[in-house]
């Protein structure tokens, strides 16, 4: 097998997903296990949901296929990355998925969505680097959003965090870095997806305004988390480093535009 073929194989790989106990994160873990991953490690702040998610995935795929570890991504990166590497020896795929939409807690939002994504990416990039002792390469998948392509009146801080993730991931995953270090960095930009997070939008904004924004972007549907999980596996199997992929409307991934749409005044 060529290096790129090995890198794109899922069979036998160790996958870590932050915010992996529900919705999009859970669907990503589920699809990687379904396609032969050795184990999915779910890092999440929510204990009960974590225990439940581990149980469900183990009954679907077999004992010890899923392992829940309680984690606050904003404080636990050093301690838990060391623990995971001691216990599992190697991580092949690291997915930064955990997020908040609490606009009234902007510092916390930026810490979870942007700072933690950057910190965990750097830790596992170092671990995977092929020029490091025993570095075997690997893939980092960061979850941004179609919100990172758009300017409109909604959730400004959340958008800032998703712009940050997209810019960071495309730069770290740039072909130059990939050729030098052998670590792939990919970005996923889901559109509106039926999860706890997206349902919060009506607590923050008038329904009429949200409907106007959705209409402006022409989204046909609020897709399932399952479609994002399926798309993550498809992108993993086919994408070069540094690329970003939109997953919207229950359809397969398409490469993200390199442009920003500004919603006009209305
Ligand atoms: N739902 C949607 O329409 C879209 C979601 N996304 C992105 O997809 C990702 C997943 O979103 P959803 O599944 O919708 O969200 P969700 O709110 O349903 O799940 C997020 C998970 O992150 C965990 N989490 C939050 N703070 C944490 C912390 N400090 N430490 C550890 N875990 C923490 C939560 O406990 C939860 O399990 C996010 O990055 C989100 O921004 C992107 C575009 C659209
Ligand atoms: C609360 C923030 C939700 C962010 C979702 C996201 O990352 C990307 C959304 C992209 C476009 C949609 C724009 C605004 C509307 C957001 C959610 C609408 C939910 C609609 C519904 O559940 O019917």
From TrEMBL:
Family matches, as InterPro entries: NAD(P)-bd_dom_sf (IPR036291), SDR_fam (IPR002347)
One short Pfam name that applies is adh_short
Gene3D superfamilies for the chain:
NAD(P)-binding Rossmann-like Domain
Q: Recorded GO terms, molecular function?
A: 15-hydroxyicosatetraenoate dehydrogenase activity; 15-hydroxyprostaglandin dehydrogenase (NAD+) activity
Keyword ATP-binding in record: no
Whether Cytoplasm counts among this entry's keywords is: no
Its EC number(s): 1.1.1.141, 1.1.1.232
Which keywords does UniProt give here? Oxidoreductase, Signal
- Membrane-spanning residues where? none
Looking at the record's lineage, which domain of life comes first?
Eukaryota
Catalytic activity annotated for this protein?
(15S)-hydroxy-(5Z,8Z,11Z,13E)-eicosatetraenoate + NAD(+) = 15-oxo-(5Z,8Z,11Z,13E)-eicosatetraenoate + NADH + H(+); (11R)-hydroxy-(5Z,8Z,12E,14Z)-eicosatetraenoate + NAD(+) = 11-oxo-(5Z,8Z,12E,14Z)-eicosatetraenoate + NADH + H(+); lipoxin A4 + NAD(+) = 15-oxo-(5S,6R)-dihydroxy-(7E,9E,11Z,13E)-eicosatetraenoate + NADH + H(+); prostaglandin E2 + NAD(+) = 15-oxoprostaglandin E2 + NADH + H(+)
Q: Which leading EC class covers this enzyme?
A: oxidoreductase
Q: Name one GO cellular component term.
A: cytoplasm
> Main role?
Catalyzes the NAD-dependent dehydrogenation (oxidation) of a broad array of hydroxylated polyunsaturated fatty acids (mainly eicosanoids and docosanoids, including prostaglandins, lipoxins and resolvins), yielding their corresponding keto (oxo) metabolites. Decreases the levels of the pro-proliferative prostaglandins such as prostaglandin E2 (whose activity is increased in cancer because of an increase in the expression of cyclooxygenase 2) and generates oxo-fatty acid products that can profoundly influence cell function by abrogating pro-inflammatory cytokine expression.
The family note in this entry says:
Belongs to the short-chain dehydrogenases/reductases (SDR) family.
How is this protein named in the record? 15-hydroxyprostaglandin dehydrogenase [NAD(+)]
Q: Tell me the organism.
A: Bombyx mandarina
């Amino acid at each position: 097998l060529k290096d790129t073929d090995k890198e794109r194989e899922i069979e036998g790989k160790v996958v870590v997903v932050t915010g992996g106990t529900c919705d999009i994160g859970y669907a990503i873990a589920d699809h990687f296990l379904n396609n032969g991953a050795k184990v999915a490690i779910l890092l999440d702040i929510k204990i009960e949901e974590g225990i439940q998610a581990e149980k469900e995935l183990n009954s679907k795929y077999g004992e010890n296929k899923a392992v829940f570890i309680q984690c606050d991504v904003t404080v636990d990166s050093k301690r838990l990355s060391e623990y995971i590497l001691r216990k599992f020896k190697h991580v092949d795929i690291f997915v930064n998925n955990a997020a908040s939409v609490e606009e009234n807690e902007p510092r916390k939002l930026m810490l979870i969505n942007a700072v933690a994504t950057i910190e965990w990416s750097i830790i596992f990039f170092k671990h995977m680097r092929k020029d490091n002792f025993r570095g075997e390469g690997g893939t980092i998948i960061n979850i941004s959003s179609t919100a990172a392509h758009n300017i409109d009146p909604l959730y400004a801080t959340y958008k800032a965090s998703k712009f940050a993730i997209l810019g960071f991931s495309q730069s770290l995953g740039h072909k130059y870095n990939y050729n030098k270090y052998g670590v792939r960095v990919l970005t996923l930009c889901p559109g509106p997806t039926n999860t706890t997070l997206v349902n919060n939008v009506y607590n923050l904004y008038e329904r009429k305004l949200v409907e106007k924004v959705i209409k402006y972007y022409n989204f046909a549907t609020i897709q399932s988390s399952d479609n994002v999980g399926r798309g993550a596996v498809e992108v993993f199997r086919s994408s070069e480093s540094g690329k970003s992929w939109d997953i919207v409307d229950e359809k397969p991934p398409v490469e993200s535009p390199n442009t920003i749409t500004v919603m006009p005044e209305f």
